[in-house]
Amino acid sequence: MDSGLAGGPVSDSEVLALYESVGWSAYTRDPKVTTAAIRGSSLVATARNAGGGLVGLARAISDDATICYLQDILVDPAFQKSGAGRGLLEAVRTRYQHVRQLVLITDDEPGQRAFYEALGFTEGSDFRPDPVRIFAQFR
Ligand SMILES: CC(C)(COP(=O)(O)OP(=O)(O)OC[C@H]1O[C@@H](n2cnc3c(N)ncnc32)[C@H](O)[C@@H]1OP(=O)(O)O)[C@@H](O)C(=O)NCCC(=O)NCCS
Q1: CA distance 81 to 4
Q2: Distance from the CA of 13 to the center of ligand 1, in angstroms?
Q3: Three-state secondary structure call for residue 135
Q4: Which domains does the chain have, with CATH numbers?
């Protein structure tokens, strides 16, 4: 696992506290799965505050050749809207700049759409001249 926009590994407890800060209960109600997911990620980029506390994280799954899937990007609400999310996404993009497809799934919320569009992403149905279909199955 590559680690770190700010460098260094992340502890299980600080990861769970960060996911808790954004209310992602699907992760925090099963800590073992969440920490396994972090360890199994291809890249974990982190953002830390001046005191060294974990305030943001982005993780990606990739074959390092043709695809990079951005699985999570989250910033503690107390540190949002100050460029941390952009920095995390840029860290993933820089690491996988040789990979053509960077894809993700997100909730149908205006703020998330605005964030990804500000970072240069296009929703599949808005692709021109050829819109694309993205399928998913949650189990
Ligand atoms: C989405 C999220 C990661 C953005 O992090 P952030 O640190 O606040 O984002 P930044 O400050 O780097 O903003 C980057 C750009 O996105 C825009 N943006 C971010 N959040 C926005 C919002 N809610 N509404 C509109 N624009 C938004 C910013 O205006 C900025 O644009 P600019 O650089 O052109 O001014 C953060 O809001 C978050 O953790 N949300 C909860 C978890 C989540 O929903 N993650 C995404 C789905 S996986």
Answers
A1: 20
A2: 24
A3: coil
A4: 2-126 (3.40.630.30)
CA distances to 1, 6, 67, 109 from 10, in Å: 11, 11, 25, 28
Nearest CA to ligand 1 atom 28: 115
**Which residues does ligand 1 sit against, CB inside 6 Å?**
22, 72-75, 80-86, 106, 111-112, 114-115, 118
6 has pLDDT over 70: no
DSSP state letter for 77: G
Sheet holding 2-3, edge to edge: 2-3, 43-48, 54-62, 67-75, 101-103
Q: What's this model's pTM, rounded to 2 decimal places?
A: 0.94
Q: Residue 3's pLDDT is what?
A: 46
Q: Which residue out of 92, 115, 117, 121 has the highest number of ligand 1 atoms within 8 Å of its CB and is therefore the one to mutate?
A: 115
CB contact set of 31 (below 8 Å; sequence gap of 6+): 12, 16
Atom of ligand 1 nearest to the CA of 89: 12
